[in-house]
Design goal:
The structure is a homodimer of 136-residue chains.
Chain A lengths: L1 H6 L1 H11 L7 H11 L5 H14 L3 E6 L2 E5 L6 E5 L5 E4 L8 H9 L2 E12 L1 H10 L2
Parallel strand pairs in A: 3-5
Antiparallel strand pairs in A: 1-2, 3-4
Helix pairs in contact in A: 2-3, 2-4, 3-4
Chain A binds a DNA duplex (30 and 30 nucleotides) through helix 1 and helix 4.
Chain lengths: 136, 136
DNA sequence: TTCGTGGATGTGAATGATTCTTATTGACAC
DNA sequence: GTGTCAATAAGAATCATTCACATCCACGAA
């Protein structure tokens, strides 16, 4: 078991890294983090394993923000706030996503809805402040 | 005015093209359409003008589907259904997006929400059918 | 032990969407 | 006509992501 662990060390590390942050990171960010503990890790491995976990449903993609894909290790349905200025993504865990919406979406679309994403875009608190201080 | 029209012909054509469809097209699709009426139009022009209108708020980006950005000429807030199989994007105009959500998002996030996107992903009717017929 | 197998990885090249650069054009004011 | 300024075409450049391929490692069979 210890030995097996070793073989999957990097795959596991990708998942741990994602679960250990609430920054909804990009592949590049994960790569930079893991580089410290695993100096020989490659970007390809990070992409490969993110795709693997996404496929498994173990993690979730938030779509792209400013051209790069962002991931979330928290698969519980929750709402996101995306800052259009700095690209930060915040969780709004307090906001409820009505349960029955998916069924409504399925029936309206004639297909089968598997997941639902609710997100808001705008300026985060920090960027609001910066804008009001510098006048844009 | 006629003359001025001519100068902006392609910019306007990009907007018209987007407004004349409900397929939520990509830049490439718009380019292919316009190529018929404007054989010398360039992809760069399409990208440039999509970015221009997006900046103005005249059109809206849906984010990327299967790696390519998709646009919507319909800026009225409405719900989308995105097929993960064929990439089709359907409007669910019948579904309501509660008005007060944006304010809640602003207060929870400490920032200022400017827009809200609610979308469902899954299999559209056609793809459901295909899957059940072919057994995947 | 020694092989063989199969999954995980590193490397670097390839891909593909998007953006940038440069030269050109058209509309308008003088 | 000349100058200016925005819009454009063409193609090069960029950048995130994927792919191809050789290698490595754990495990199991001989």
């Amino acid at each position: 078991m210890e030995l097996r662990q070793k073989h999957f060390r990097k795959r596991d590390a990708v998942l741990e890294c994602l679960r250990g942050t609430d920054t909804h990171p990009s592949a590049e960010w994960v790569y930079a983090q893991l580089k410290r503990s695993y100096p020989d890790i490659s970007l390809g491995t990070v992409y490969r394993n993110l795709a693997f976990f996404k496929e498994q449903g173990t993690i979730v993609s938030l779509g792209t923000v400013k051209g790069v894909e962002r991931f979330d290790g928290n698969t519980a349905p929750h709402v996101h706030f995306i800052c259009t200025e700095c690209g930060r993504v915040l969780d709004l865990m307090q906001m409820k996503v009505p349960e029955e919406l998916s069924e409504a979406a399925s029936s309206y679309s004639g297909g089968h809805a598997e997941s639902c994403q609710l997100s808001f875009t705008g300026l985060c608190g920090d960027c609001c402040k910066t804008v009001s201080e510098t006048g844009e």
